[in-house]
What does this fold into?
Amino acid sequence: DAGVIQSPRHEVTEMGQEVTLRCKPISGHDYLFWYRQTMMRGLELLIYFNNNVPIDDSGMPEDRFSAKMPNASFSTLKIQPSEPRDSAVYFCASSLLEGELFFGEGSRLTVL
Amino acid sequence: GENVEQHPSTLSVQEGDSAVIKCTYSDSASNYFPWYKQELGKRPQLIIDIRSNVGEKKDQRIAVTLNKTAKHFSLHITETQPEDSAVYFCAASQGSARQLTFGSGTQLTVLP
It folds into this structure.
């Protein structure tokens, strides 16, 4: 398996624009997680899905953030409208129930 | 919820010396404690984990110890090498990757 695949790897956008980050989990994994990493706050869990169903979105900062998982092999994290404070590295990760968490390479977002 | 504190935030050692990173957790129900290594610009990757039914686990130059009574666990790296330079994160959860709470990270620098 190619591992967790994220796109884009880098995104530079202007404040107010919509940003969509994409993730393909490892085949067969039934849990998918979105994390945000910043210097100030470290690794924060934003939301996670089990069998495509959102289970806990308490980490989503505000209504500007939304995530979907329309099928077992694809998830999106959308920010609309984006703000400079959203600048961070966004990681997607997947796992089996009791298994290791596998991270993607991350999407580095810069909002100007 | 769980709170994980990690110390030190930075650590410099000479090549060949040992490095120790310590974490404390707050939730006595936590029973799964993984450690992740993140090289600059890369994804976090699991290097070792321990569950609460054991007090110590070793894998070559890396070991983790757990003290459930005191609610702390530590990462020990012996015979450090320059390629050990990275940020190390501890984490804790109740048994799986689903609700991992990460520490703030330790930047380890191994000086040649």
Notes: The mean pLDDT of chain A is 94. DSSP finds no helices and eleven strands in chain A. Chain A touches chain B through 21 residues (CB under 8 Å).
